[in-house]
Amino acid sequence: MLHKIVATKKQEVERLRAEVSLAEMERLIADLPPCLSLKRRFLERRRPVGVIAEVKKASPSKGLIRDPFDPLAIARAYEAADVEGMSVLTDAPYFQGHLSYLRNIKEGLTKSIPLLRKDFLIDPLQLYEARAHGADVVLLIAAILDKKSLCWMAEEARALGLEILVEVHTAEELDTVLDAVEPDLLGINNRDLKTFTTSLATTLNLLGQLPQSTVTISESGIHSPDHIMTLMEAGIDGVLVGEHFMRQANVEQAVCSLVGHAAYASKGASR
Fold first, then answer.
1. d(CA 67, CA 201)
2. What b/e string do you get for 244-265 counting C-beta neighbours within 10 Å, with b at 16 or more?
3. What is the CA angle 107-70-72, rounded to 5?
């Protein structure tokens, strides 16, 4: 499945390159305000384990997750729960996402909450696209980027003012990332993108190999306070949660039930 997704992304990039020039992209982003810092939000968080809450309609493994699906209403519920950041799925063929969700959410929120573009990014044009549509942070996936490409994409993202959340799943990917770039945030994906099986042990096994200063996010398969407690005791800074929240009727309450109310937690908790 991962190879299929990447092949689709290559086709999307070629279409984008035919439709818009780099100079046009540069004009689109020239007057945008500075990006918000997701890293700072985690370093200054007011709950022991912070959360990146995901706006997600569907997935290749689970199919349709939320119907009806109103991205802005979901984002406003997350805003009310004072999440540290939001992840917005923009992949259309496999996750039923759209780039317009990013812009609509950015313009529709009243609080300053960093937005992550969640997609399979393989070319700098996608970074310009993300910046133009309101992203503050982009996801770089080690499973689809070799060391040279990872360095290139990280450099280009930072030149645009974007922070990077670099995602790994294996010890080999982690070694490559730590040797190539210094991520603003390091995501450990508990889901194997080749088989779509999920295990929280992935985070627990890799966490000890990271420098103490790394802001680390556990991703996928997190849906209970017990999971949060296990990760907190291991020293995680935050979690990225999508499917669990999307399956709840009251999204704001679901966030607070899982990670707690931000105002009631000690400020600045960190590893």
1. 31
2. bbbebeebbebbbebbbebeeb
3. 20
Query: Structural domain of residue 112, as residue ranges?
Result: 2-261
* 104 within a domain of the structure (yes/no): yes
In terms of Cα–Cα distance, which of 241, 192, 238, 185 is closest to 210? 185
What's the confidence (pLDDT) of residue 195?
76
Q: Helix, strand, or coil here: 65?
A: coil
DSSP 86-132: EEEE--STTT---HHHHHHHHHH-SS---EEEES---SHHHHHHHHH
SS3 content of the chain, % helix, strand, coil (to 5): 45, 15, 40
Task: Please name the residue that has the structure tokens 């000690």.
Answer: 266
pLDDT in tens, 170-225: 999 999 999 999 999 999 999 887 777 899 999 999 998 998 889 999 999 999 99
Omega within 30 of 0 (cis) for the link into 68: yes
Q: How many domains does the chain have?
A: 1
| pTM, entire model | 0.94
Q: Is residue 266, in this structure, part of any structural domain at all?
A: no
CATH code of the domain in which 50 resides: 3.20.20.70
Q: Compute the Cα dihedral for 211, 151, 157, 126 and give only its sign.
A: negative
Residue 187 inside a domain? The answer is yes
User: Is 271 part of any domain?
Assistant: no
What residue type is assigned to position 260 of the chain? G
Backbone angles phi, psi at 69, to 5 degrees: -125, 115
One-character DSSP codes across 119-184: S---SHHHHHHHHHTT-SEEEEETTT--HHHHHHHHHHHHHTT-EEEEEE-SHHHHHHHHHH---S
Name residue 239's beta-bridge partners.
Answer: 51, 218
Distance of alpha carbon 231 from alpha carbon 222, whole angstroms? 10
